[in-house]
Amino acid sequence: MHRRTWLKGIGLAALQAAVPRRAWSAAAKAARTVRRRVRPGDPGWPSAAKWEKLKGDVGGNLVEVKPPFAACAADPKGADCADAVKNIQNPFFIGDQPGGTQVSGWLDAWKPQPSAYAVAARSARDVATAVDFARDNDLRLVVKGGGHSYLGTSNAPDSLLVWTRKMNTVTIHDAFTPRGCEGKIAPAPAVSAGSGAMWIDLYDAVTTKAGRYVQGGGCTSVGVAGLVQSGGFGSCSKGFGSAAAWLLEAEIVTADGAVRIANACTNPDLFWALKGGGGGSWGVVTRVTLRTHDLPEFFGYAGGKIKAKSDAAFRRLIARFVAFYRESLFNPHWGEQAKIGSDNVFEISMVCQGIDEATVEGTWKPFFDWAKSSSDYTVEDLEAGVGPARHWWDVVARKKRGSTSMISDARPGAPETHAFWRGDQEQVGAFLHGYESLWLPQSLLASDRQGILSDALFSASRHKEVGLHFNKGLAGGPAAALAAAKDTATNPTVLEAFALVIIADGEGPAYPGLPRPAMDMAAAHADAKEIDLATAELAKVAPNGGSYVSESNFFNRSWQQAYFGTNYPKLQAVKKKYDPDGLFFVHNGVGSEEWSADGFERIGKG
Ligand SMILES: Cc1cc2nc3c(=O)[nH]c(=O)nc-3n(C[C@H](O)[C@H](O)[C@H](O)COP(=O)(O)OP(=O)(O)OC[C@H]3O[C@@H](n4cnc5c(N)ncnc54)[C@H](O)[C@@H]3O)c2cc1C
């Protein structure tokens, strides 16, 4: 990993990319319109000999997929079950299981169901072989990188999985020019990553080792290809824009089995769709190359809790924070979250970049002093500060300092650079009762609308905790970041939004086979209802807000508009061009209207 020069193998794969092995033509499309995909036991299911041949063709990297807790079903007291249970809170362990999903399901929506087989791909050639096999045998195909799909789109029963986990090489470039863009686009500093890499792999290579910045996700174990295709945001996205905005090039295996290059000059329509058009709909991305940026000197934070002693005081606190946010934090520097709790607790966990200690302390002092000085509130751990940006993701240095903010992958032999934020711990393996997101337009921050916004936030919080994710709304960011994000498939609403509201809840891991008490279904349904009611309060003030494709409601009926807005017709056209037969299907993905909910039966015209 982390090599400065192209590996020979990658160079070869890139060369193949210039020559698609087969191109879809209208005639080919007409000749091939799958109406029903096959399952094990169907007459059309590939024979054992065919699977064996596939195994040989992918260098032995074909595996039968078992549920992660299969060992517990077989022997609840055995060592293998104990090992799985011990590691259930470790996202790196879950990510290493071919049948692993980082979320253990969603009430009435989906539950983890492993594929029949997985190709644990080592190269674009392995991927192309798997895609050809799935297409030619009418199989349901599914793609998985880091496994962080809340919507369950990287697992499907009776399918063939292309699993990219092992394709995780990271390469730094001093000056990268997208293929075919020579003379059109100036070379730029960049990083290339195999699509199975996680963001912590890039942060280690780009920031800790090379002293630069790449825009990725907040959660360190999320996969790069999944997040870029989501649009994707990290703590500093208010300053740098979405991750998709800085994609320079992707290598992708499309439905025809061709290894293609997509960038601004080569297959530009596909390139645009990959930037936020949703994972699993376009092909199997095998490599991404992202522009890197100068690293700010400091990253910083502000955190703590303020508890109001009455509802009236909590209303005043929300209003005060909204005004403070508009005045002092609505700028490229500040991202991450404020949580407005049903228990009248206001929790701040914000992150900043590009400002020094004195500026950070001076910014927060008036707000902290106000809360501390009032008898209406009790405060806990209110603090703000900065540290060297270069050591933000430096797991080894953090450990030496005695910092406990990151949790390492403690398994023997795990890379010492692999760790995740303590704040993400409770999400690992969670079972969702409900999940909703909504972009809030910056117009709500105008002084004459702040009251309406504050009231809506208070009303919503009576049902459920409301999370304001300021880094997932791009308004207030610099012009360059906004312009780059505008040229993506994400709903343009994101450009006008000052924050993404997330309202979600659930309970601890509920993987099939995991020994645990029975779920209280009535309580879970009641919880889901409260999420809907909280969202409805905010939808009143942001009726056309839109929703972030990868952090959204499984049951959203207007997902096309919510995720992509005015971009949807163009996305449909790209889908028809590169995947006319709908090989790449995901729940609520572009073109999924033509298929049954499980992706097995065509219900559209085709
Ligand atoms: C705990 C948690 C924390 C999160 N934190 C953030 C965050 O900080 N910021 C943010 O913006 N989002 C966040 N997300 C959402 C996350 O970015 C998306 O769900 C993303 O798509 C996950 O990518 P993955 O590879 O990890 O997941 P997967 O489940 O493997 O993939 C997600 C989708 O992308 C497809 N896909 C994956 N790899 C490929 C590939 N190589 N080619 C084609 N399609 C592919 C899959 O088929 C699936 O549809 C988080 C999600 C979770 C569960």
Description:
By secondary structure, the chain is an alpha+beta fold. 32% of the residues lie in helices and 21% in strands. Strands 15-12-14-13-19-20-18 form a 7-stranded antiparallel sheet. Strands 5-6-10-8-9 form a 5-stranded antiparallel sheet, sandwiched between helices. Helix 12 runs antiparallel to helix 13, helix 12 crosses helix 15 and helix 15 packs antiparallel against helix 18. The longest helix is centred in the last third of the chain and has 21 residues. It is globular and about 75 Å long. The chain starts with 7 loop residues before the first helix and ends in a 28-residue tail after the last helix. The relative contact order is 0.14. It binds flavin-adenine dinucleotide.
Give me the secondary-structure topology.
Layout: H1 8-17, H2 26-31, H3 48-57, E1 62-64, H4 70-74, H5 79-86, H6 91-95, E2 117-120, H7 124-136, E3 140-144, E4 159-163, E5 170-176, E6 188-194, H8 199-209, E7 212-213, H9 224-230, H10 237-240, E8 247-253, E9 259-263, H11 268-274, E10 284-291, E11 293-294, E12 298-308, H12 311-329, E13 334-340, E14 345-353, H13 357-373, E15 377-388, H14 395-401, E16 406-408, E17 419-421, E18 431-441, H15 450-461, E19 466-469, H16 479-486, H17 493-496, E20 497-507, H18 521-541, H19 559-564, H20 568-578
Parallel strand pairs: 2-4, 3-4
Antiparallel strand pairs: 1-2, 5-6, 6-10, 7-11, 8-9, 8-10, 12-14, 12-15, 13-14, 13-19, 16-17, 18-20, 19-20
Bound molecules: flavin-adenine dinucleotide.
Flavin-adenine dinucleotide binds at residues 102-103, 143-150, 153-154, 164, 195, 217-219, 222-223, 225-227, 229-230, 232-233, 279-280, 284-285, 424, 427, 550-551, 586.
